[in-house]
Task: structure prediction
Amino acid sequence: MTVSEPTTASPATRKPSFWYGLPVGYVSLDLNPSAEQLMKVINVLRGLPEQERDEADRALRLYAGIVSQLNANRVQECALGVHPNDAGGFTTSVFTVSTLPTSGSAKLVVAGLAGSAADGRDEGMRPLELPCGLGFLSEKRPTAPRSSRRPELNDTLPSHIWQGIVAVAAPSTPELIVLQMVTPDLDAADDYRNILLGIARTLTFTDPERAMADDKASQEPDALTGAAATMRNDFG
Result:
């Protein structure tokens, strides 16, 4: 897949910042919409017919609730993915990036979890050697959430989902960087695992623009190295 422009995974005020690449087919949800943006949406809603206005209003309230919940859980990125499948339809996924504070050294936490995964004590976990450092991959197939407001839809919903998580220690703060991929398409779990691992391999704590500038200063213009080469190699 072709990688998009490097994404700043944390707000400018957070230190350290980190970057990663998103493959095509993913659209980021705005987790910090401005008051001006919200007013534009509200003004559009006011001009809709009553039935459409009610439906759009429910969608807006749902969006606001989701954004509030994501922000409360330290989510830095939420991207929705839509990709064609072999049956001629489409499969969906949700990718999130969040930070998880640790009580002690984040690197020791990751090392301990990676060690447990290597020993086979935790089923569904395995250690990862990533360009940015040691991490681990966790996979689960939990029960899919059910709808309490519209229980008649539950029969049409999948019974389980695939959930993949990659965690890496932040270099200078006591927190984990957590990348999570979720999809209801269990048959595509291998594909989404590869996408998640591909994104994880692009994770860097060095500004890719600065790295590319350094590369250009020391090498030929067409040569890609460093973070740019890593992102190109992982997604093609």
The CA atoms of residues 69 and 75 lie 9 Å apart.
